[in-house]
Design a protein that fits this description.
This protein is of the alpha+beta class. Helix content is about 50%, strand content about 15%. Among the domains are: about 35 residues; about 130 residues, no CATH class; about 100 residues; about 110 residues, Chitinase A, domain 3. Strands 14-3-16-15 form a four-stranded antiparallel β-sheet, with helices on both faces. A four-stranded antiparallel β-sheet has the order 10-5-12-11. Strands 7-6-9-8 form a four-stranded antiparallel β-sheet, with helices on both faces. The radius of gyration is 34 Å and the shape is extended.
Length: about 650
């Protein structure tokens, strides 16, 4: 089919023109693009579908947010099946709550919306010195999220309405002290145990399989001895760095940018201040705040009479434990580092001045300005390298979309080679051997990207050695590749895997012997406890496992404690078998009163969270939420068993 398209380009363009134009007339350009982008349905809430396209877009948005907030985050974690499935679960959760809010007529008033916007710290940082909102920066904030200011406010209103669905549960959750204490004491309860380990490795020397047995196992389990398909590939990557290499900035543009931004590039003014704080939380009673204000007024009068005593007064009276010991010194800070009332007062003072009493959400401050650091304007030569780098990034970001289109078209139009597009865009063609469908240990960059690897092993790329499509492998990064040599999956010859076959046979039989021996000892020791050969006694609990295997710990804590001591057996699968004797229960020591309060509060949070999850489960049933994608299976990590002594 693709050969026909390439050979009859003009005919196909005419046909597409005749087909597409009427479609635009009927459904509109936006509607047509939406039809093409929806993809398969991956989840459904009531009559509303969540499509593959929505899922991909949501996960990309979430990944971009996490990368921005945590630059050192391993990107492979974001592309894992577990991370993608978590994004889908969040989408379903949002849709369920949105439908519930609509069904229950939960709305947000203009006053509630205004209060939330006023309390939003991001928006608070956009206010000008006179307290008014910088509307230009506000529009930029909304635009960075693909919204107008009106759209941004509508989304905040929607989020506030949706939050009300679960607020009835989360804001009223509680647990009785007696129930919390009983549950927490059980959680921290300790048990004295002794363990006998029957490790598979200890029985391996007793196994000596024949050649016939090895060959029989090999023939019956050939799926275990598959050599996966592999390919040698070449690929090219288009990203901002490669686009930057093609950009040059003229000297006149550099100087013009410097002239317009010299003050900003040289740094911001910083001020050093000391303060005396009298605490008064914003939710404190009017009487308490009035009392704190009166105390601050007294201290202000004392400082006014003797300005040089400010540090001593701060040491003795300030309730800011972080700065009081240093005489209230807060060191240098720029605009945006302090709460707005404090910042406005500090930047209005002259060096040596003492402010009036300043009220903030923390309480009442008396501020003394001790120093001013005015930035020295840096020369063009000092800033030249940084300016050039900034301008190249800006131009690369603007040029990337245009270059990306040329890259996408180039790898498609000449699909039997990556060299033409690489030469045109000055990109490097890289080669690598032994590439598999799953990222190899130690792989980096695009070779860890599941979408790119899936494209490499697509039927067209494997069978016809054609270029893959341009795959988005990271933000502002496109990759295309092609197979130069392909080796299909195959069953490795017995001679090549004989040692592995023997290891598997020995391990399986040794595990069987270990289990048999352990079960026999369990029966014997239950009948004659004095004959048991066990390890030194250990005190174990859920928070102090003593490095024993999780299966052993779980068995010890589940054992019936009504008739101690008691023996239990634990099948450890490939690791062998264990026999555990629980000797006694050791109650938890009574914690301090402060610890008790903290634990009760934590337990109440857990209980409220469990109630909220149960409520969400009911909402999912009511609004018929379905997920069509299977949840990724978790991979268990083996934990070594403590050996018996």
């Amino acid at each position: 089919m693709f050969d026909f398209v390439r050979k009859h380009t003009r005919i196909m363009m005419a046909m597409l023109f005749l087909l597409i134009i009427p479609a635009f007339v009927l459904v509109g350009i936006d509607g047509y693009s939406n039809l093409g982008e929806k993809g398969a349905t991956v989840a459904r809430v009531g009559s509303h579908d969540i499509t593959q396209g929505e899922w991909d877009a949501a996960h990309k948005s979430e990944s971009d947010r996490l990368r921005a907030s945590m630059p050192n985050l391993d990107v492979k974690l974001l592309d894992s099946p577990e991370a993608r499935y978590a994004t889908l679960e969040r989408l379903v959760h949002e849709r369920v709550l949105a439908q519930a809010a609509d069904k229950f007529n939960l709305m947000t008033s203009d006053a509630r919306l205004a209060r939330d916007l006023q309390e939003n710290p991001t928006i608070a940082s956009l206010r000008l010195p006179d307290g008014k909102l910088d509307m230009e920066r506000y529009r930029q904030l909304a635009a960075s999220q693909g919204l107008t200011p009106e759209g941004f406010e509508a989304r905040v209103r929607h989020d506030l309405s949706v939050r009300q669905v679960e607020a009835g549960v989360t804001s009223t959750g509680f647990s009785a002290a007696g129930v919390a204490d009983l549950s927490i004491s059980a959680f921290f309860e300790k048990r004295e145990v002794q363990i006998a380990s029957f490790a598979t490795a200890d029985f391996a020397s007793k196994i000596s399989p024949t050649e016939t047995e090895l060959e029989t196992f090999y023939k019956a389990n050939q799926a275990l001895f598959q050599s996966p398909e592999q390919a040698s590939i070449e690929y090219v990557v288009l990203d901002l760095d490669s686009v930057k290499k093609s950009i040059s900035i003229s000297e006149s543009d550099l100087k013009s940018y410097y002239d317009q931004n010299a003050a900003r590039l040289s740094g911001n003014e910083e001020r050093r201040a000391s303060h005396i704080l009298i605490n008064a939380a914003k939710d404190a009673t009017a009487a308490d705040r009035q009392k704190a204000r009166a105390r601050a007024d007294e201290l202000l009068q004392a400082v006014r009479k003797s300005p040089n005593s400010f540090a001593d007064v701060a040491k003795k009276n300030s309730q800011d434990t972080g700065s009081a010991a240093n005489g209230g010194d807060l060191d240098f800070f720029a605009r945006g580092a302090m709460v707005k009332p404090f910042e406005d007062a500090a930047f209005a003072l002259k060096k040596g001045d003492v402010s009036e009493v300043v009220e903030s959400d923390f309480g009442f401050h008396i501020i003394q300005l001790t120093d001013i650091k005015t930035p020295t304007q840096r020369s063009f030569e000092e800033l030249r390298a940084g300016i050039e780098a900034d301008l190249k990034i800006q131009q690369a970001q603007r040029k990337f979309a245009e270059t990306a289109e040329a890259f996408t078209n180039g790898v498609y139009e000449q699909s039997d080679s990556l060299k033409p597009v690489a030469d045109k865009l000055k990109l490097e063609v890289k080669t690598v051997a032994n590439v598999m469908r799953k990222p190899a240990p130690g792989a980096t960059g695009v070779l860890t990207n599941a979408k790119f690897l899936a494209a490499i092993f697509g039927s067209d790329a494997v069978e016809k050695k054609r270029n893959t499509e341009a795959v988005e492998t990271a933000p502002n990064q496109l990759t295309a590749g092609r197979i130069t040599q392909y080796t299909p999956a195959r069953t490795m010859p017995f001679a090549d895997v004989r040692s592995v076959v023997r290891e598997r046979v020995v391990a399986a039989r040794a595990a069987g012997l270990a289990k048999k021996e352990g079960m026999e000892k369990l029966t014997l020791w239950k009948a004659a406890p004095a004959s048991a050969t066990l390890s030194t006694a250990l005190l174990v609990s859920r928070d102090q496992s003593q490095n024993i295997a999780p299966q052993v710990l779980a068995a010890a804590l589940r054992a019936d404690a009504s008739a101690l001591p008691v023996f239990v057996g634990v099948d450890l699968g490939a690791q062998g078998y264990a026999v555990v004797r629980v000797n006694k229960i050791v109650p938890r020591l009574a914690p301090a009163e402060a610890t008790v309060k903290q634990e009760r509060a934590q337990y109440a949070q857990w209980w409220t969270g469990a109630e909220n999850q149960a409520y969400y489960g009911l909402l999912k049933e009511r609004f018929k939420a379905q997920t069509m994608v299977a949840q990724p299976a978790l991979t268990a990590t083996d934990v070594p068993l403590t050996s018996a002594k």
